[in-house]
Amino acid sequence: MNATIDQAVVGGWEAIRLANDHIDVVVIPKKGAEIWSVTDRRTGVDVLWKAPWDLRPHALSSATAGASQTAWLDHYAGGWQILFPNAGDAVTYRGADLGFHGEASVAPWTASTDATPTGAALDLSVNLRRSPFRLHRRMELGPGPSTLRFSETITNLGSDRLPYMWGHHPAYGAPFLGAGTKLTVPARTYLADASNAPPTARVAANVRSSWPLAAAPDGGTVDISLVPGPESATADMGYLLDLEGGWYVLESPQTGLGVAVVWPRDILPCVWLWQEFRGGTDYPWYGRAYVMGVEPHSSWPGHGLLGAVDAGTARWIEPDATHEISIAMTVFALSSDGIGTVTSVDADGSVRFARPLGVED
Fold first, then answer.
1. Can you tell me whether residue 170 is helix, strand or coil?
2. How far apart are CA 228 and CA 235, in angstroms?
């Protein structure tokens, strides 16, 4: 089924829409090539989170605070960002201030389109200013009717070997996200971030547990693969480690939809799991955010490039070298039996199930 591509405007930003009869994807090139929405056209459900505050228009895209984290959050309103070459806390490396979540997530990318056998493709690229990196992304719909796929490369244009963090930051929200949404990831370990703290955290800080049961502050366990409702008023951050495959599936019985994401595990060997279920009562959330980020990433913990270098999880790239990843996201309809037993996701985004929940062998 051929895809179409056209212009759009989102919150004052020029955007590009890739669409077919099943899926509609909107990208904002000048805002870090942000994927603003991924909408299932059959139900009208956008699976990505939208903040209860407005997306700031292009005229206000400059920093509104001295701290890069505050400036980033001032302009964050949901969607899906690329985090590169830094992620998490701002750091200074080789004389450059590498801001919160990295320059690539806020830099203006150039965009072009061309015809393909499946309809159209979107090419995006940027040369960073604070680090000698060039990034390129090519986005297309297919091969399945509800699959977004893209390849992304980073190239070191400098003369020295350099470290980096490279992650993708899709955030899911209501109506897709709700009580009973299930996350399936082939991980063996969950490591709670050191910043987790009661009373709003469900998980004890800096503790390793066997996924999906995580150690709770009271000594018990909590199944963090099952999403609670917004009334839980909890907030947690952690890392899914020891992956047996580079994929995850989210199943939303309340909308009858699922989302599958697949990526190369050798370059992105962990998943950051950010669960903000109205537990954050300070800036910028103030108890208003019901959102979960399930984020394939190269490195952990999420406290900046220097922390990843110290932990031995930063990746390194030689001068003139290029590293590449391919990511696919598929939006699919759940079976009439509801949530299933997911066994794997193929590289093209196809989801494999053992059997639907409640159906006996």
1. strand
2. 11
Alpha carbon distance 150, 328 (integer Å)? 6
Distance CA 240, CA 294 (A): 10
pLDDT tens by residue, 134-153: 999 999 998 889 999 999 99
Amino acid at site 314: A
Query: 90 in helix, strand or coil?
Result: coil
Separation CA 300–CA 117 (nearest Å): 39
User: Per-residue pLDDT tens for 237-283?
Assistant: 999 999 999 999 999 999 999 999 999 999 999 999 999 999 999 99
Q: What are phi and psi of 207, to 5 degrees?
A: -115, 135
Closest CA relative to residue 104, chosen from 131, 123, 83, 75: 83
pLDDT bucket at 66, cuts 50 / 70 / 90:
low
Give the Cα separation of 39 and 290 in Å (integer).
18
- Side-chain-side CA neighbours of 333 within 13 Å: the count stands at 9
